[in-house]
Amino acid sequence: MSMTDSIADYLTRIRNAARVRHSKVDIPASGMIKEITRILLEEGYIRNYTAVNEDKKEIVRVYLKYNKDRKSAITGLRRISRPGFRRYTKVDNIPRVLNGLGIAILSTPKGILTDRQARREKVGGEVICFVW
User: Fold this and answer.
1) Vertex 68, ends 62 and 70: CA angle to 5°?
2) What CATH number is given to the structural domain containing 101?
């Protein structure tokens, strides 16, 4: 079966692994996936990640983050722009996720950025997903 939306698959794998409290999850790698994972690490939603080559395929191994009560740092993930319906925004209309408690990840001309970074850089772009 061919996969048409690797970002939706990535978000679903992380969501499912967090629900059953796995310590890590393996995801097929791409440039976009690596950048989104880097942002999740910088924002404190995951513990760490590594790029691993297994059977001639590159994967990203994401180590999930939990608090002392084993509650995930990621409460929710939501895909916004999909292959069938792209969502673009100007810098003035960049959405705020839970009034700034979550983040929106955007693909901009300056790379993959969070909503705060995009406002600071004064660029709009495609809204990839929300994380809270």
Assistant:
1) 55
2) 3.30.1490.10
For the record, the structure tokens of 111 come out as: 């790379």
Closest CA to 114 of 101, 127, 105, 125: 105
Alpha-carbon span 48 to 41, nearest angstrom: 6
The structure tokens listed for 53 are 């080559």
Convert the pLDDT of each residue in 47-64 to its tens digit. Answer: 999 999 988 899 999 999
Q: Let me know whether 51 and 89 are in one domain.
A: no
- Domain hosting residue 86, numbered range: 77-131
Whether residue 72 contacts residue 122, with contact meaning beta carbons closer than 8 Å, is answered with no
Tokens of 89: 């925004």
Tally the domains of the chain: 2
Residue 46 shares a structural domain with residue 89: no
